[in-house]
Amino acid sequence: MTPAFEIINASAGSGKTFALAERVLTKILKSQDDDYFKRILALTFTNKAAQEMKERVLYSLKEFSIPENNKNPSPLFIEVKKRLNFSNEEINRKSKTRLIKILHDFSFFQIDTLDSFSHHIIRSFANELNYSSDFNVTINHQDIIEEAVSQVFNNNNKDQNNLLIDFAIKKISEGKSWDVEHDLKEFAEAIFNENQFKNVEDSSSTSYKGYNKLKRDLENKKQNELRKKTEILQKIDIFLRAQEFEIMFTRNAFPKFLDKVKDNDFTWKAVSSIESLFLKGTLIKKACYDKTPSQAMEFVTKMEELFLKLKTILVNISTINSFENSVTPTALLKTIKKTF
């Protein structure tokens, strides 16, 4: 059985427009029904392609209707004639008749884009779909983001407002502007990001109550790690004061690092630098090993053990902070997606 539709799919410049025009013209001219063009639907991806196709078909029908052109026929005329097996005169006559019919009922000449065709169907069934009959289609997703974020701000939902306040306070604590609207619009871009959409979908299943519990859990974990940090720093101080030999640190790097950690002003580059001193055996100066080698070795071994514990705690705190920083934005993204 001959299928009721054809798909023409090929790379740019391979002759898709020619092939599609030839198929449409053949179907228009082959039928005995002058209105057969109303039963043809041709769909393309872009407005430019649809316009080009319409122009190609109309121009060709006009060209086919002129007998003088039979002397030097176009490639399209030759291809259509081959498929129809009509005489030149019959093609001339039918082309003229069908061209007039199309021009008189141009709205039924369906060469359109996929999205426009879908739009026509939805508008035709707007009542059944509970849509307003005068709805508009928004192509630019930025317009949708603007509207969704605006509605989030204008919503009187207590949970949403608390999220916005939490986010604003977080920004202020980081020395940034309290105005979160720009950030929310940037978050909303993830909804349209193909690689991020699955993550957005997963976050949508979490409730506001769930986010609040997660925040509390993370805060409790962080406080626990901060207590561990204080304890390990105290152990290091006690261990340092308990030494009975003179300790000379290379470039005084380790004591400076500890002061930075106490003030929460350290960098991960500094952590790596201290770790490198342990690996190279240069945490303390060579003179310490020369004067009291066994005590120096024992000291460095124990101090490395304490340092690695401190490093683990710092990594845990940093990880928890990263999670904490993402909780509120993720909850806001869920809200925006729901509104969108």
How many angstroms separate the termini?
A: 45 Å
Q: Give the rounded overall mean pLDDT.
A: 84
Spans with pLDDT under 50 lasting ≥5 residues?
A: none
* Percent of residues in helices: 55-70%
Give the C-alpha Rg. Answer: 37 Å
How many structural units, i.e. domains?
A: 3
Order of helices and strands: HEHHHEHHHHHHHHHH
Overall form: elongated
Q: Report strand %.
A: under 5%
Order of neighbouring strands in the sheet with most strands: 1-2
Structure notes:
The protein has helices at 16-30, 47-64, 75-84, 88-104, 114-124, 141-154, 158-173, 181-188, 197-203, 208-241, 253-262, 268-280, 286-291, 293-339, and strands at residues 41-44, 110-113. By secondary structure, the chain is mostly helical. The chain has three domains: 16-124; 141-205, no CATH class; 211-326. Strands 1-2 form a two-stranded parallel sheet. α1 packs across α2 (47-64). It is elongated, with a radius of gyration of 37 Å. The mean pLDDT is 84.
